[in-house]
Amino acid sequence: MTNLSWASWGAIWAVLLFAVDLATIARAVTREHRSPASRLAWSVVIMTLPLVGVIAYFFLGDTSADRKSDKKLKDLRRELRRRPDADMPQANLPLLYRQAFARAASVNGFQPVSGNRARVTTDSNESMDWLVDDIEAATDHVHILFYIWLADGNGTRVAEALIRAAGRGVKVRVIVDGLGSRRLLSDPLWARMKEGGVDTVVAFAFRFPLISAFIRRLDIRNHRKIVVIDHATTYVGSQNCADAAFRVKAKYAPWVDVMLRVTGPVAWQAQRLFVSDWMVNGGDDIARYLDHVPEVPKEGFPAVMAGTGPTESVQAVPDMMQMLLAAAQHEVIITTPYYVPSEALHQQICAAALRGVRVRLNVPATNDSLIVAFASRSFYRSLLKSGVEVHEFQPGLLHAKILSIDGTAALVGSPNLDQRSFDLNYENSMMLVDPDVVSELCQKQEAFINVSLQVQADTVVNWSVPRRILINSIGMLSPLL
C-alpha cells in the first residue's frame, strides 16, 4: 500500500511537472519579438531539463526588465522630443546607404544630420586623456554613462575631473550600470563623487538579487557608453571607464578599444539617449536639455545615432548591419569581441563574400567567455567556405566593435555581434558616411588584423570529432547567448 502511495504521488508530481513544462513552453513560443530559433532552443532546454529549464527560462528567457520600467521608458519615448525644435537641413546621403540610415533613424525617431566632425582615439589611455581634457574645459554640463566604471587609474582620473567640474559650477550627471559597475558602487570613489557634487543614477540597480530575480530579469543591462559635454561634444565606441589592464579580468588584458570623439549636431541625439536613461532610472526631469537647437556647420559628415534595447526597435542592430552589408561593393571589415550573430546576419555576411566582396572578420583568439568562444567557432566553417577571412587577435582581448564598408561608411558603438546585444542590452551606435573618418577606422582595423593569426580552412576541417561535437553543441545554443 505504501509503495502504491509513493507511486501515486510520483505520478502526480510527474504530471504537474509536465504541465509546468508545457505552460512554460507556451509562454516561450508566444512571447513577442522572439526568433523561431530562440523559441525552438528554449523549448528544447525546457523539455530536456525538467524544472531546471523552467527556472532558467524565467531567470534568463524573458526579454523584459520589469513592467514598470518598460512602461516608464515607453512613455518617455512618446513624451520626449525626438528632434530639435527647428527645421534641420536634410543630410546628403549616398544612394547606396540611404536605406541603412533610414533604418538607423527609425530606432529612436531621429534623422540623419550633417555637419559632424570626428577624431579616432589611438588607444584606451588617449580616450581617457581626451575625455578628461573635455571635462576640464566644460562650462555648462557634463553627462556621462558607462556600463563599467572601475576605481582604477583612468576611472579615478575621470571621477576627479568630474568632481573639479562640479566644484566650479558645471552640472555633472553620471549613470552607471548596477551590475557592470558594482565594484565602483562599493568603492569610496563613488561616495567621493556624490559628496563632490556629482549627481548620480544607477541603471537597473538591485539590492536583493535572489528576490528580484522572481519579478524581473537581472541580466538586462545598460551597456551604453555615452558622453555629452556642453551640447556640442559626444563620444561613441566600445571603451568603458577603466584602464586597458582591466583589473577585474586582468588575465585577458590588454582590452583593446576604439572611441570616436564627435562634435556637431549628432550630439543632440546622444543627449536624447542620456536624458531618457537618466529619467527612467530615477533621475530628475532634465528634458529641458532637449530644448537646445544645435548649429549645423556647412562642413562635416552625415551621421545618425541609434539607441537600441529590448523596449526599443527590435533587432535594430542586425538590421542596420545587414543593410550596410547589402550595400558593400568592395570590402567589409568586421571587428567584434563576440561573434554569435543571428542566422540572418550570418548569412548576409557570407552572402557578401560569395558575391565577391572581400570580407574580413577579426575576433579575439582568447575570449573572456569560454562558452561564447566555442559558439563563435561553430560559425567558422561556413564563414570560410563562403570566402570570409577569419582572423584571431593575439595580444589581448579585442573589444572594439566596428563595421566598416568600402572605406566609406561605418557603424561604431557598444553592441557586440551576439543575441545579448541584439535583444537584451541597451546599446548605442552611430552610423556615419565619411571617407576620412572611416579610413582612420579602417587603419585601426588593419592594425588589429596585422597582429592577428588568420584561421585556415584546413585547420577547421581537421578539428577532432570530440572538438567539433563540443563546438557545434554549444553553437546550437547561440540563439540563447
TrEMBL record:
Gene3D superfamilies: Endonuclease Chain A (3.30.870.10)
CDD domains for this protein: PLDc_EcCLS_like_1
Domain PLD phosphodiesterase: 218-245, 394-421
Membrane topology designation: Multi-pass membrane protein
Record flagged with keyword Ribonucleoprotein: no
Subcellular location field: Cell membrane; Secreted
Uppermost EC category: transferase
SUPFAM superfamilies on file: Phospholipase D/nuclease (SSF56024)
This enzyme's EC code(s): 2.7.8.-
UniProt entry keywords in alphabetical sequence: Cell membrane, Lipid biosynthesis, Lipid metabolism, Membrane, Phospholipid biosynthesis, Phospholipid metabolism, Repeat, Secreted, Transferase, Transmembrane, Transmembrane helix
Record has Ligase as a keyword: no
Function: Could be a virulence factor.
Name of the protein: Cardiolipin synthase
UniProt source species: Aliiroseovarius zhejiangensis
